[in-house]
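Q: Could you fold this chain for me?
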Amino acid sequence: MTAPSNHDAQADRSTRHDDGEGSDSKRGSLARLARASAGVAAVAGVGGALYMLGAFGPVSCWTSRTSTSAGTTTVSQGCTAGIDYLFGAGGNAPVLFFWSVALLALVGVGATSAWTGRIGVTWAATVLCGIVTVIGVFSIGWFFLVPTVALLTAALARTVAAR
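A: Sure. Below is the predicted structure, expressed as structure tokens.
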């Protein structure tokens, strides 16, 4: 014999919140899909941010050649990552640091909202990640691609489950 549930599915629909505990098995499987997708987004987002910060090696390398009037050429090379910004490095370090923090923030908010069933916040984070992915498709956008697809899957699953 099961205990009576005080879960109000109508209240979930009116507040656009879906905790995935409805009696329908389809709703439960969609909630599991949303949570799994939120987990994938979080792992991919953290991995991308760590890569931009330089946890797996240098991210942006440069070569500079200078010639003197005597005809000698000096070649300088260097590499930076996002974490170098905290130590005063210039070049691409501030840009990489900013986008790694932006990725962590967007994915953190999106994954948390998808996990807890906040549909509107999940969609907002998904759209913002999508905008960055499209605008930065040839550079920083690739780090946002997998988290964006995962958040899109979570947002769609939560939206369908709430209907």
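A (continued): Residues 25 and 63 are 59 Å apart (CA to CA).
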